[in-house]
Design a protein that fits this description.
The structure holds 2 protein chains of 2 kinds. Chain A has 6 helices and 10 strands. By secondary structure, chain A is of the alpha+beta class. In chain A, strands 2-1-5-3-4 form a 5-stranded mixed beta sheet, with helices on one face. Chain A has a 3-stranded antiparallel beta sheet with strand order 6-7-10. Chain A is globular, with a radius of gyration of 19 Å. Chain B has 6 helices and 7 strands. A 5-stranded parallel beta sheet of chain B has the order 2-1-3-5-7, with helices on both faces. Chain B has a two-stranded antiparallel ribbon with strand order 4-6. The chains are: A alpha+beta, B alpha/beta. The interface of A and B includes residues 102, 110, 112 and 138 of A.
Chain lengths: ~240, ~180
Amino acid sequence: MPPPAKQPNVRVVTLTIDGRDLSARADETIIEVCRENQIPIPSLCYLEGLSVWGACRLCLVELAGQGRLLAACSTRVTEGMQIQTNTEKLQRYRRTIVELLFAERNHVCSVCVSNGHCELQHMAQKCGVDHVRVPYRQASYPVDSSHEMFRLDHDRCILCTRCVRVCDEIEGAHTWDVMGRGSDCRVITDMAQPWGESDTCTSCGKCVQVCPTGALVKQGTSVGEMVKDQHFLPILARRRLAQ
Amino acid sequence: MSTSPKITVATTWLDGCSGCHMSFLDMDERLIELVQQVDIVYSPLVDTKTLPDHVDVGILEGSISSEDDLEKAHAFRKHCKILVSLGDCAVNGNVPAMRNHFKLADVVDHAYRDTVTVQPQIPTRGVPALLSVVKPIHGVVGVDVFVPGCPPSADAIWYVLSELIAGRTPDPSTVTRFGA
């Protein structure tokens, strides 16, 4: 489902983030308030213009008085919240999350078409991941090159579901979906048919552009050539809401 | 000229393309400055045949792919005070580890039988036995400094060595990353 439209008359709450006194609309999430105030919060599944999924957990923050960590993308602000966004504990957790993403599938950056333009790769550098401390799973995943314009490499998929959401909420085709559980989880097209045989795909390429890694790419791109453009998304999302 | 005592450095490459050593040489004129502070006591770049008993900094390029790689990694860990994992193959397995998707026997068959037209045969003499799974260096021995990159730039290697020479612990995340 797309994000709900903002209410015209909504309460304003006050809160502190990293010691800064801030005010925000009560229907905003922590990550929205942080982005508005240039407070960096890492995320991979969250993308402005798409509904909230809360899968990657990289946007975890600490809330005073709460023992557990909260995902900033799926937590609304409330009056008096005291939030920390970059404690040592959060840094440690984020680094581990990124390492687990690398260990689960086979992200060989040096031979990836998205090398140098990959959000996972940037996240690794930002979180100080210089090696992966858990053993690699070394599982095999297929590549779907059946589409005449695009390619799907499950090895590089981090299951952020941006493709699923953009296809459903912005393009309105709902070609993409998710199949399986745990490490067998995969994004699929239609009823797990080859992408090139999809009856619903409009070949618009929005899924490719929002994909943070080299999982969805244009055919014919070579190492480091796949550069993505996500500027269209907030504009289209606003127009969708206005309809 | 520096008056401080030189540190000893040993390097070797395991299952890799030697690109990291080429990147090392890409330091160009800085190599002259480096040899005033460093003695390369064992390396494919010099003629020494045996690894000395005590080395200050050991640098490993490539992943652990064969019995020979395993032996060298253990020897470096044993004789080097600081062990540096240099390049993506050493740090995460990289391209050599892509064979982990397949059974070793299938990989060997493909390389020496399926794709060979003249005298297809699997070598058994003079080559080390391959391990069934390719691992990064820290998958078999402890590593002190990780320098990702394919290959890490000469600047990154220069930074890491300069910090080690100065007795500091480098943070290569600021100068390189996976696939850089």
